[in-house]
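Milestone 3.1: sequence recovery, worked example.
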């Protein structure tokens, strides 16, 4: 059997052991340790967010972001149809319902034209609220996802959000290190959410962060993440809170990982650009999502779409190379198949059904990548 190449593998080449050991040596492993504040400050400084609040997961970050945006039961939240289920689940936890939008056939991100036409034709502003006229429900927020670390059309969506008084929460779970013009993903709307799950650009084992420029929103997020404790000593709590804090051990990993972010990003960029260069040819039925010309993505997970995807996947599996398709479109999942899905040609379905993500972890060697590329090229030229 050929050597196994996994889809992803974390990169721990820096001070991870040292900082985690430091937590154990000091007997300070749980939340509120010094590494939590340091991790938050480091991420805030890097992304240009004024505030960063560390939490247990990207999903928890999204849940809190919705709650502090005053998303309430019965509200509608606008989401792209191609995302990890966590984006939609967070909306459901808040008691709201997603309205799903198809993605653009070229860049695979939420289609801003569909969002604009939905808002222009079906919604109106009434006393500062955006009302969806046919259902009488309030549209409170829009949650674009920077899928694959590539950039959603966030400036256009933020303009629409302002026009219709919506709060824009960017799901930047996959997008640490991704920039649109001079803005980091997650800092264009009112709130942005990062994830540090094991397969993300950097990892704390599990974790997430809320980015914002608003001191008020940051304070609310911190409050809700710590069981809404309202007194420094007494166990007094002034509203329903959550235990969503990141632990000191996790944050210690995060601080060590942030020190290597530039290395990780340049390794990943080199890997994805090589895939794109050697696999995209006019006569081959294979394409990658278009990269926004004014963006610098983090190249989180190289993923292509091909009419011969089944043969390619089988050939790679036989060679012991791990791959996987993109997430099932949300409108096909039983929890969300009753949601409104706004589309003209269902690009989501076509893209996902023909998609495959390739290994691109920082330690992938040139020889391993050559093996992967050769197998795919053989399938394309058969
Ligand atoms: C990973 C991910 C999340 C959830 O993050 P967790 O840390 O796993 O909870 C949310 N949205 C997207 C797009 C993701 O890729």
């Amino acid at each position: 059997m050929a050597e196994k190449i996994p889809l992803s593998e974390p990169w721990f080449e820096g001070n991870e052991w040292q900082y985690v050991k430091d937590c154990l040596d000091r007997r300070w492993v749980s939340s509120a340790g010094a590494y939590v504040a340091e991790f938050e400050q480091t991420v805030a400084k890097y992304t240009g967010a004024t505030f960063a609040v560390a939490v247990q997961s990207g999903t928890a970050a999204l849940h809190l972001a919705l709650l502090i945006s005053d998303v309430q039961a019965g509200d509608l939240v606008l989401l792209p149809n191609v995302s990890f289920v966590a984006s939609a689940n967070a909306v459901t936890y808040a008691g709201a319902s997603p309205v799903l939008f198809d993605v653009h056939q070229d860049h695979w991100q939420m289609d801003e034209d569909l969002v604009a036409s939905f808002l222009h034709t079906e919604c109106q502003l009434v006393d500062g609220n955006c009302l969806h006229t046919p259902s009488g429900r309030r549209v409170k927020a829009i949650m674009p996802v920077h899928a694959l670390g590539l950039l959603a059309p966030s400036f256009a969506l933020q303009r629409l959000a302002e026009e219709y008084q919506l709060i824009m929460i960017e799901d930047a779970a996959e997008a640490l290190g991704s920039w649109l013009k001079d803005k980091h993903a997650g800092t264009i709307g009112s709130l942005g959410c990062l994830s540090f799950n094991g397969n993300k650009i950097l990892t704390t084992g599990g974790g997430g962060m809320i980015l914002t420029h608003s001191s008020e929103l940051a304070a609310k997020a911190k409050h809700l993440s710590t069981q809404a404790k309202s007194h420094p000593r007494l166990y007094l709590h002034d509203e329903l809170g959550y235990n969503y804090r990141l632990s000191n051990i996790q944050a210690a990993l995060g601080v060590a990982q942030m020190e290597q972010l530039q290395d990780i990003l340049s390794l990943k960029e080199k890997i994805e650009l090589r895939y794109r260069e050697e696999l995209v040819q006019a006569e081959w039925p294979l394409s990658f999502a278009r990269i926004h010309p004014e963006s610098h993505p983090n190249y989180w997970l190289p993923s292509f779409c091909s009419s011969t995807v089944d043969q390619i996947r089988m050939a790679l599996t036989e060679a012991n190379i791990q791959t996987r398709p993109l997430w099932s479109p949300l409108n096909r999942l039983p929890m969300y198949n009753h949601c409104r899905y706004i589309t003209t040609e269902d690009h989501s379905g076509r893209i996902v059904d023909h998609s495959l993500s390739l290994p691109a972890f920082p330690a992938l060697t040139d020889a391993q990548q050559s093996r992967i590329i050769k197998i795919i090229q053989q399938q394309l030229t058969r």
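The first strand starts at residue 51 and ends at 55. The longest helix spans residues 261-279.
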